[in-house]
Amino acid sequence: MASVSKQIQNADEAISRNIESLAGQRALLSQNVLAQLRNLVEGVVVRIHTGRPDAEFNYAAVEPGLAFVKSKGKFNFLGKFHKLIQISASHYTLDGDASERLMLKYYEYLYRVRSVLQANCDMAVLANLEDFPVDLDPSLREYHEKIAARIDVIRSASHDNSPRDR
User: Distance of CA 102 to CAs 10, 19, 37, 97, 107, Å?
Assistant: First the structure.
């Protein structure tokens, strides 16, 4: 059996290579990444529970790991994420559109996984997560640019710095 660190690294490598290779094909990219998420999350759960990078990764270690992270406030999102993955993607291959929507929903969870691993285990994963094509709608991008321009105009206007100034 592989170590828990190797399990996490293998899933991370598969996800990162897919993001690098398929950034222009979000549907296929999403399907491929969804196939690896359970492997990643279960590895993370076992790693956090054992506290050891060299701990053996096996299926029997996943349940105690899930119970542990669910009992800890700063880690309980991992239990929720695992449950979502089990319900939605672990034994099914979804079509491209459904996969894209799930990945957009799971994107924040992936950021949190990356942060938790870095802060608690000193492991760097999902280095190219920002390259995942999140915003593909040009009209939405234009809308956000207009909002940002209005905010900039308001910020640059002079303020009297009164306590009621918002």
Answer: 22, 15, 11, 9, 8
